[in-house]
Amino acid sequence: MQQILLLCLSLLAHAVAAVAAAADGEARFGGRVLLPLRVQGAPPPPQAPANKLRFRHDVSLTVSVAVGTPPQNVTMVLDTGSELSWLLCNGTGTRAPAPPPPGPAAAFNASASSTYGAVRCPSPECQWRGRDLPVPPFCAAPPSNSCRVSLSYADASSADGVLAADTFLLGGAPPVPALFGCVTSYYSATGGRGSSGNATSSSQEAATGLLGMNRGSLSFVTQTATRRFAYCIGPGYGPGLLVLGGDGAALAPPLNYTPLIEISQPLPYFDRVAYSVQLEGIRVGAALLPIPKSVLAPDHTGAGQTMVDSGTQFTFLLADAYGVLKGEFLNQTRPLLAPLGEPGFVFQGAFDACFRAPEARVAAASRLLPEVGLVLRGAEVAVAGEKLLYRVPGERRGEGGAEAVWCLTFGNSDMAGMSAYVIGHHHQQNVWVEYDLLNGRVGFAPARCDLATQRLGSGA
């Protein structure tokens, strides 16, 4: 019977893939090992909502991973929109092995791992393997012979370090050698600058790194030759499930598939290694919005692709589509929700369809809100109830702060500085999502992810 590796979803980090992992990757993850998955949040800083890597979102999916020899427990963000996995590192100098801490580490201690190795220049790993990255790895200036990596994200966060290799242990599978970014300095758009030596204060709430799961040559998926993986995200902060390898048939509900969109020629705004699908329409309730097909498809520059991204919290639409959705949602919810009435209020720089109401009123109204459907070629992602609204942290209105501020969980891509549609993980809650690279498609089906996780815990 084929195995399936199911992982615990928590926050941050990807680091897999050393040379030669591709050949036996499917053997490692072709069987049935199940692990839990988590949604992890962080409290907001004093003046702005907290930020985890991309688009100032304060909630990420995380997975627990053991890295190095002896294994060190780390927590990593599961990100299907990123390629190179990375870990915040310290101790990258002379090895002085020390026993690993019992819980997740704030930083990976490279000097304590006997299997850690920095990639040197010149080498194929440095000069060729990173060809799909926006900024490929590069050789440091002499006399150093290290291979440097520099990563940046849409919210202006960035990370810098060296390309390295070590073993990654996921659940009950054998250790996997993988290339990753051993990050020694980073900049967070909301948390300021940091380095591996002083990162422990913020890392108590954050993860140790990021697990890159797109289709690029340095992603965890590519390095391990994983041809199929899936996840099921529980509602709210509940647990979920990550499945690596196998066909998932014994666990997944019947899926509706949409094909991955491929564009062979390089275009400036098209991400060729993303999980890009075709958005064919958007509906609010039964009303299909009057959005021209040309607005929903990539243009001659590649702008306008639709990406399925577990590393982004909410969903983003380009301005023309967003404006139509916002107008129809406000129109249909007028009897249920009072608009905020503050034209200058924009949550996280991209969400301006906002309301004011006590929590109890929104809880009652959420059952009556019109469902929003993202209509794909052959499938649909339906968003209903509590997933449609997000309570803005720290914002209260009315006498005595009786009313909270709520915003529609669809943002304006143009306001966020993006040129794409992005389906974020908030709208993938209680949806079984399968990435089938073998057949070039992504599958969706409604699911009770909390029950799937319980079945996992009982050894189903």
UniProtKB/TrEMBL annotation:
Entry keyword set: Aspartyl protease, Glycoprotein, Hydrolase, Protease, Signal
InterPro entries recorded: Aspartic_peptidase_A1, Aspartic_peptidase_AS, Pepsin-like_plant, PEPTIDASE_A1, Peptidase_aspartic_dom_sf, TAXi_C, TAXi_N
PROSITE patterns listed in its UniProt record: ASP_PROTEASE, PEPTIDASE_A1
Residues annotated as catalytic: 79, 309
Gene3D superfamilies: Acid Proteases
GO BP, sorted A to Z: proteolysis
Signal peptide positions on this chain: 1-18
Residue intervals of the Peptidase A1 domain: 61-445
Pfam families for this protein: TAXi_C, TAXi_N
GO MF annotation terms: aspartic-type endopeptidase activity
Family: Belongs to the peptidase A1 family.
Protein name: Peptidase A1 domain-containing protein
Organism: Setaria italica (Foxtail millet)
